[in-house]
Design brief:
2 copies of one chain form a homodimer. Chain A is α+β, with helices and mostly antiparallel strands. Helix content of chain A is 20%, strand content 40%. In chain A, a hairpin with a 4-residue loop joins strand 5 and strand 6. The interface between A and B is large, with 56 and 57 residues.
């Protein structure tokens, strides 16, 4: 698995660095390699989604609520669930009683070290306005589960993109149902 | 949406470049920004999955068959379906009669320009050995749909990672079923 060839940092930015190693090139975050992604359904059966402008793709993108974790995720890591709970409140205004790991994996293993852990949030209650930190300009959507795919198609028709992780989250919700 | 601040290339590698723009940093491929991801089920009801070592995460990763497209994906783009068909044969040894778009979106919109298009492959027939190009060392798995989640858990227990896009693909299969 290890070819022993040197790892070279081609560029070191403020947030990301570009690495060359063993014939591969990939990007990694300076401070965090883990991301917590939260599958949260309100007591009324509505999935929480966030929408924000993403410069890399030049469009608004609908995603599951998510936040950076400090280190490589471990599904059993209490700190990851705590970070996920904090991000959920910041982005959506909902607090969760419980966070349960669903799966963890790399969404772009060919070009990034990123590994995302999906967590199911249960026992939701509204505690704040959401919308993210100042300047994040996050729109929160609460969408009835039985209409969510049609709703996503409608948003796409307006030029908004949908992160495929939303559909992975829906898969886990349907398996549980 | 546009802040007009300059786009600066922090590093230009052989495959990727790291860009700084309007306070964001992100990575993009030099030659392609689109990826075709293929949801393919054999006539016997088995999902095609590929497993290969991915240096960015330092592990073997199980993914849906996929290939780079030359340009930003357009689900109506015949060239994308053609590229997807070629990659499916190279990686898995199966040819498809038809490719139908399922969804398209950015899996890591916070750090990459990458947009993936999911295509459903129908009418599969074996035409070759698969395994990718020389040096790619791709293992092909054909997994019965009704056991695939347990199978993935078992592989994870051995240290292999699973790309969350696999679960997005399963969601579309279940919706159709």
């Amino acid at each position: 698995m290890s070819e022993g060839s040197p790892r070279t940092i081609l560029a070191q930015g403020r947030h990301l660095r570009l690495v060359s190693e063993a014939g591969w090139e990939y990007v990694e975050r300076n401070a965090a390699s883990g991301v917590a992604v939260i599958v949260a359904v309100t007591p009324e059966g509505r999935l929480l989604l966030v929408e924000q402008f993403r410069r890399p793709v030049g469009r608004r993108v609908i995603e599951l609520p998510a936040g950076l974790a400090g280190d490589l995720p471990n599904p059993a890591d209490e700190a990851l669930a705590v970070a996920a709970g904090r991000e959920l409140v910041e982005e959506t205004g909902y607090a969760a009683d419980r966070m349960s790991p669903l799966t963890a994996g790399p969404p772009s293993a060919g070009l990034s070290t990123e590994v995302v852990t999906f967590l199911r949030a249960d026992g939701l209650r509204r505690v704040g306005p959401g919308g993210g930190e100042p300047g994040e300009d996050i729109t929160v959507h609460e969408v009835a589960l039985d209409t969510v795919v049609d709703w996503l198609r409608g948003r796409e028709a307006t030029g908004v993109l949908v992160d495929p992780k939303v559909y992975a989250g829906l898969y886990f919700l349907e398996r549980r149902a």
